[in-house]
Amino acid sequence: MNRSLLDSLRKGGFIFYSRHGEANVGRDLSNLNFQNCLTQRNLSEKGRREAIYYGDILRYLRIPIKYPVASSPFCRTIETAQLAFGSGNVQVDPFWVDVYRLTGNLPSGDKQRILNGLQSVLELKPEEGRNNIIIAHSFPKGIGLGQIPNMGTVIVKPSGIGNGYEVFGQLFLSDLSKLGC
């Protein structure tokens, strides 16, 4: 990571699409219930540390964030967002469940509807001088923003509604910590 990238991120105007921290506790059951974390995979202790570190490093680097941050309704994404940015700074958005569903066997019409919705979200420019944060899920290989590792972040530069977006880069936690040096 270089200084010019950090300077760009500090000016705002990006969307940070981040996958939740490591989640290897439990499993997503067929009777998954968003109000019952026992029916879902949840963050491990490592995942919790990753989430805390992610928020700490963004603050340390003085990267401006628009609050509230968006989160999928899964317990692992909400907990990641709350640990990183504070429980009062998270807004759950059910749309991100659809992104999670892309990993399943969906009819092509459903898949296209989800990808069109994703396109609309990623085209929306953030408030001047801020960056939007989304804590959600990885994508299947070659779909959407592609595969994202635990606490990996895809940096998106929106061009405005109907004008597309550019994937500016992908960052890992180790990349963010190098920026602080």
From TrEMBL:
Name under which the protein is recorded: Histidine phosphatase family protein
InterPro entries: His_PPase_superfam
Domain of life according to the entry: Bacteria
